[in-house]
Amino acid sequence: MELEQPIPRNTPNVQKLSSFSLETTNTYTSRSTTSSKTTSHSTSYNDLCNRSESFRTLEMGIPKDVSPEKRLAWLRSQIVGNGVEFDSPFGKRTLTYADHTASGKSLHYIENFIIDNVLPFYGNTHTCDSYVGQRTTKMLHEATQYIKKCLGGGLDDAIIFCGSGTTAAIKRLQETVCIAVPSIMRDRLIKCLTNEERWVVFVGPYEHHSNLLSWRQSLAEVIEIGTDDAGLIDMEALEERLSVYRNANRPILGSFSACSNVTGICSDTRGIAPLIHKYGGFVCFDFAASGPYTDIDMRSGEMDGYDAIFLSPHKFLGGPGSPGILLMSKALYQLRSSPPSTCGGGTVSYVNGFNEKSRGGCACAGPYGHFLLNINQTTSLAIRSAIQKGYVGVKPGWTRISFPYYMSEEEFEFILAAVEFIAIYGQRFLPLYHFNWKNGNWTFKKKAFKDLPLACGGRIVNKHTSYLEMAKNIANLLPKFPSQRKLPEDLDHNLLYFRV
């Protein structure tokens, strides 16, 4: 994507490249070492901008001959909020962000480019009659073609920016194949379809709710494929179910997660694609979880190619604020002689593998959670019943952490040590929190903490090692086996998968 030269700017909120010397040899070489910061004989951020041939050169932010270690060090320095502190119940702490699977972080140099080169000349992209409209439209088209090329799209593919992630991208695909309908109309419309008109959609065992619930609520017949002994999509079961529809003369589509957003297990996309195509179907993949870390080559039209891919660019480093991406083969488009799908997802509290559901907020991987936690249908329905009584806090779950390539080794080691600390001492801290059975929220009890004979009080702690030392001091003042708090009388105690 060849855009105009970025305008150099001086701004106090941007850490200069000079913070990381391009000539120093200190890198993250061991568990205890960190990069050296120096300001001598270094290249400034603005100098780099001036030397760049185009915005494309700024993709890595620094010249290509710089070592990977120094590139990552500079990249970390550009993360918005890097090193920021917040007031925790135990004093000030440096923010350690470890949910990159949910969303990436913004980058100063990208935000500055937008502020200096895009927003001042921003205009409506639907017109080229003005300077700002023409300039913005040109940049949009350049970006569109560049993204399409990066994803392996061709002339027979269409790229659509929609909503804020894969939820919107999947919904848009469903609209283009004419199976997305209001839930209140679903049952009536299904009765009007002939068997040959109704799509058969295959989904995997570890789908995000975006790639499961929306298909269930569409006009399609949804076939869920389980896991094999290795925890991957069961290819034998998939082919067995596909063979049932070999001569049914029904449209077939497979929509699978390329990677689980819970465990990180990756699907064999190049193995699944030819199997679906063998039976005359289309195959789509949700790259929301793995998109920032893997190469994507669509190659639609080939036996092992993809007919559609879904992306959530806000999960990329530098991606917050970007729209969802649907890249699809034009062969999937069913509205050629009709108006477009858009002229001019929702939330649930509990989802299981038995097509039972209820309303509210959730972990977005209910059926896979049932599999991982070995929850059977009887227990699942009992949990659902408890939630409907108002006990949302009974819902089982997990804590997810992620380690992106740009995380420092110091942060990585700190997170591992923190997880180990929680495994050993976590239950001791339960008396310091109030648990709300109605909404599942934990609230810190300030008075309970103040009553502890803690010598360090609320002093500011700046180092990760000090955080853990202070946490151990607090843990040693707390009972090793705190008493179980009182449970609601009308709640089945056997439903609890965790200590409260």
TrEMBL record:
Keywords associated with the record: Pyridoxal phosphate
Polar residues bias spans: 8-22
UniProt key word Nucleotide-binding: no
Residue span(s) of domain Aminotransferase class V: 97-352
Region (Disordered): 1-22
Protein name: Aminotransferase class V domain-containing protein
Organism: Jatropha curcas
